Amino acid sequence: MTLAAAGLFLLGIAQLLRVPRTSLGRRVLRRMAPKDISKPRLGWFYRYVDNHPWAALQTARLVPRHTSYLREVKRELERASLPDVPVRVIVPRSRTRWRATYAKMDASNRALVKRFPRGELVFADGTSHSWLPVERPDVVVAAIRDVLSVA
What we know:
With 151 residues, the chain is mainly alpha-helical. Helices cover 65% and strands 11% of the residues. β1, α5 and β2 (118-125) form a beta-alpha-beta unit. α1 runs antiparallel to α4 (53-79). It starts with a helix and ends with a helix.
């Protein structure tokens, strides 16, 4: 079991035991969230974690398979000729982000964008990988509008 799968499995068990509803659970969740998260978004995070125990457990089962699928997709993308279409890759950028952990992911995102003649990297300040659409929906909407306007 990968580290990510183990973490999701533990999260699912904690959810089934209703740990997120306790004061200790809330403190742990608060530490997991980005430091600059707003109160409404933190409330959404609490509700999400508290209401989806089976999702975490089922995702934990899929994570080990996911890695091999990602490798397969990467190989195919590297072989394929990609079309001349506008592409925006949105990358999280947070002050709390672990630089060493995400350096490889950033390099992969940059390499992907370079393969598209009209590709651009878009940084979403104050976000994490998992919660980017929730934390910065404005960045997602702006990227979609940008692609539609130049298509």
